[in-house]
Sequence to fold (142 residues):
Amino acid sequence: MTGLSGGSEQYAVTRTEQEWRDLLDPAEFHVLREAGTERPFTGEFTDSKAVGVYSCRACGSELFTSVEKFESHCGWPSFYAPLAGDRVEYLEDRSLPGRPRVEVRCAACGSHLGHVFDGEGYQTPTDQRFCINSISLTFRGE
Fold:
């Protein structure tokens, strides 16, 4: 995906590409602003059971809570719903040939968070799995 790096008028939080680079370390920039993916089972929040709120690492917008976090054993933190419907946005992702996906971005700054999958059979209230990169999040415990 291209075009994430620069500021965009559609988001409440905008920065130039250089401002994002100054704010984020190279790995964070790659995931959040270039729609990269961290390696599975390496993120700090993958197995976390701490109680609190997960926010966008780029802008601080609160996105998910530990209440909606569940163990999917997929290698990334999984949530069955965002904190509120307007906290994230959804975009069609056709970056993998033959396998369309739904990308999840922070609605406040447009940063890439991960993907959402429907109908996988997890015993959650929404039957959705928000597969989110740990590196795209910060955590504030209760």
Remarks:
- Residues 1-7 have pLDDT under 50 and may be disordered.
- The domain at 17-141 is CATH 2.170.150.20 (Metal Binding Protein, Guanine Nucleotide Exchange Factor; Chain A).
